[in-house]
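Final report, closing paragraph on structural work. Over the funding period we assembled a curated collection of sequence-structure pairs, and we close with a single example.
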Amino acid sequence: MKRILALASAGAFALAGCGEGGNGGSAVTAARTENPVVETFRNPPELRSQNGELRTTLTVAPATVQLAGKSVTTTVYNGSWIPPVLRLRPGEQLLLDLDNRAAEPTNEHFHGLNVSPGINADATVSDNVFVHVEPGSKVSYRIAIPPTHNSGLYWYHTHQHGIAQRQVMGGLSGGLVIDGVLDPLPQLQGITERIMLLKDIQITPQGTLPDDIDPSAPSDRMVNGQVNPTLVIRPGETQFLRLGNIGSDVYYKLKLDGHVFHELARDGNRHNQLVTSDELLLPPGSRSEVLIQGAAQGTYLLRALAFDTGPAGDSYPEATLATLVSQGQAQTPIALPTALPAVEDLRTLPVARRRTITFVEDTANNTFFIDSGNGPLMFDANRIDSTIPSGTVEEWTVLNATPELHVFHIHQTDFQVTEINGVAQPFVGHQDNINVSYQPDASSAPGQVKLLIDFRNPLIVGKFVYHCHILEHEDGGMMAVAEVVKPAMAAAAQFGATLVKAVNRTLGRSAERGNADEAARIEQTLSAVQAGSYCRTEEPRAASQDATR
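Its predicted structure, as stored:
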């Protein structure tokens, strides 16, 4: 069913059309330097690492917060809808206690980090989304950031399957920065940095989050919890914007009137060159780190343009997110870098395996599936959908056989986009989130992206997920389980799977011949093979880890 979203805040309606006029509809009014505009934009609060580590507690609990001029009772971290940004450097560690004082289970995912998906030797939890923190309990997370980890903007959020959409929209998401992305660029040292976290929320007349979120209901879209804040820049000044879509479902197609975006990094991965564009598309979960240079004195709007996700999807109206005022003494613009540090091109490496992953949905029943080569299946935490040998690079073709957009995201690693709908893509870097276009009708080809996915990092051995990052779809079943295994285990798994198939075929023939004794002996062999084929070793368990894992 086609759904058209409205905007809840009257201020957004009043400003949405103000970008029309001179300079291509960019400058609305001239800023008066004798009476300068006061900036109202605020960066989120921050917690910074000290002596190589960041120790903190996130308390999940209901609170009444002020959003878009309304009092809203929802479940948040530490009493705030915009919790602190966690800021570390490569080689440091995050020690985080998640204290659940809410009425339903939750957990934590550190989106984009290339870290262990398991349980640490000291029984603390790494980036393991199969752990559930039950009401009234606390779990300790220890995230070791490798010294070679990419610097950039990441985020943390609940990943409690089935209720992730409501929990994220309600407030359980925040920013995470690994410092150092500008370090190799001396001309950019000391420029103004702005962290701009984009979130949306639906609010009932009673001031609560809806029990069943209706994507067609009015939605408030905010920057760091602010409605249309004002930012100030000088003409010619270079500023660094770290933009993150940390909401549950909404796409943001961004345009800053009178300016262009010089994208330096995507999803925490610095490019090998600046990518310049008039617009930025941020699907749910995506981040973009950009440079802007102040235009002539005037007032300019940062807008989320109207956006449609397909015949079975949603239509978002245009919204004004922030206002940029260029005022004061003009600066000579910094010469932006023409090249950035080299990034490894995965096309130069051998491809160990090619897979096809297909997004499928039942629009009539609003249920969602992933076909990883074993048929369309809804998420099952106890099933392994893709077994991947560590130390390899694979090519995944992701197909969208549905009439609405989906967003492919994989945990623990990044990928390189090589093709979109059959068109080769220039190599600029890596990312962890990608929009996949929809299939307009049954006679059309599915949307398609080709990805080279890097599974060489030994830290990511273990079990994690890949899914659509529209959380309505993830909760509805569009998620699957990958397991990266050590090469010897991968060989054993492949041998076991091949032998099981052969034994099954023989077992079937024996039963057909009526040879019950032979069938029984083969069945015993089959059981032994299945029991020992993976040669697994047990990992330490956290007290709150789900017993079905």
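The longest strand covers residues 53-67. DSSP finds six helices and 35 strands in the chain. We thank the funder for supporting this effort.
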